[in-house]
Amino acid sequence: MKERKLEIVAFLIFCNLIALSIFLGIRKEQDLEVVFFDVGQGDSALIRTEEGKNILIDGGPGQKLLPHLNDELPFWDRDIDLIILTHAHADHLSGLVEVLERFNVKKVLWNKQEHDSVLYRQWEQSIENVKSKQAYKGQRIDLGEAYLDVLYPPKDYDSELGLNENSVINRLVHEEGAILFTGDAYEAQEIQLMEWEESCFDEDFNWCKVMILPSEILKAGHHGSSTSSNYEFIERVDPEIAVISAGKDNRYGHPHEETLETFNSLGVSMHKTFKEGNFRVFFD
Ligand SMILES: [Zn+2]
Which domains does the chain possess? Predict the structure, then answer.
């Protein structure tokens, strides 16, 4: 009899857990949600659409991403609908290799620029059976209430350039606002984007539909390094908030003083992951 009672109690607890998870799942799926994870010295962001699709942009260094994903996603949701890798440096790639092992990843979008590293070879192996597409400017990914545009690099990018310089740059657009994800792109790429945007004032190239820079939120390029966040570019993007994703006391000294000054003088608030942790945005 006692055993029977225990069984009933265990069953009721189980039902409650299921109900709670469903409740949490539904609550999240009402809005488009974007979380920039605090992954230390690296980048990783998760987009969850209203329809419950999961999109990851970069995976951060080491093994920092999985605990975040386990916090964010209900336990039955092991689908990552799309991974966007901005470039193959470890501080953007490591966590993705782990995700490919443990989640059902449906598609990968990246610049396909090769890199000589053990990690890169692991990545190549782990995407062998995943639909893998080259990312290039002009692409638009439909996310229902929102879309994701690829602004950079061009299809025939210069593979002699470093990985940072060929970072995939994309912009999430929702009627409530836009977020610009810049990877580790440098000033030269920021200036190129401004030139392309300007050329679209006069001519209507087929990729012009994506070449719009103003965005409410900017993921500051290259962890707030002075290689990036050109003053005119920040003025053009005109963000309310810049997310600076960097590690505490990192060896590169990111974010650099010049970048902080640029944001301060243009009245842009900053969210620093190493100080304030994850940064979360809802669009409804
Ligand atoms: Zn980086």
Answer: 30-283 (3.60.15.10)
